[in-house]
Amino acid sequence: MAENAGKSDFQKTFLIASPREYFFEMVDNGLSKRNVKAVPAVQTYLVSLLEHYLDARNLFEEPAGEGENKKPETLAEMFLLAANSDRVGKVDLLKKLGDRSLYISGFFGDSLERKIVDIDYYAEMGGAAYGSLADHVSDDMVAQVYRIFSREFLAYVDVLTYISQQSMIQSDQSLLRLYDRYMRTGSELAKEKLIEMGVLTLPKDQAKLARQD
User: Fold this and answer.
1) 53 close to 59: Cβ distance less than 8 angstroms
2) What is the pLDDT of residue 2?
3) How many CA atoms, within 13 angstroms, populate the side-chain half-sphere of residue 48?
4) Exposure winner among 30, 43, 85, 101, fewest CB in 10 A?
């Protein structure tokens, strides 16, 4: 396997059955490389987070329609709106705030350092959102996950930053966006790029057979 020498774990050839399987491998590697011990529920949550933001539109609020209240434009406004919402609205807004802060800090932390609002602000707001969220959910395991993110927010930012750097998700030639495009449209250009980047995509049934060989 000399041809793979010097490549990172994420740049080697993969048999990808679904983005979720790939995200599980990325999260597992990220936690290991950053020496962060995580309960399975936290690992699963991070995978779901990556899946959700694979569609970049989920990073942004839909504009308010005619007659609707103005959408919050800052994290602080979102936190204030959550504080004055009913339980369902509070949980929804706090989760969006925590998740968005965590993802943006991990994947776009370098750009935040060049802005007035820096990563410390995102960490403060995200940690506070998760901490408050833990007090408003009925499931003890889910509450535990949120408390972990609240206490160790920056540690998980480091995990996502590592994943971002290794997987090139933040670039226009994103491995996962290319994969998503190929799976949705069958684009030959996307397929060629995936092959060029060292990624082998197979239909799910073929991927399972390949793992059995």
Assistant:
1) yes
2) 44
3) 8
4) 85
For the segment 67-90, the average pLDDT, to the nearest whole number, is: 84
Tokens 């209240």 locate to 69
Q: Which residue has the higher pLDDT, 192 or 8?
A: 192
Domain extents in the chain: 2-56+71-212
**Do 38 and 145 touch, CB atoms closer than 8 A?**
no
The predicted model gives 62-71 an average pLDDT of 54
CB 48 within 8 A of CB 204: no
CA distances from 169 to 60, 65, 70 (A): 18, 32, 31
Spacing of C-alpha 3 from chain mean position: 30
* Whole-number Å distance between alpha carbons of 191 and 207: 16
The residue behind tokens 């495009």 is 181
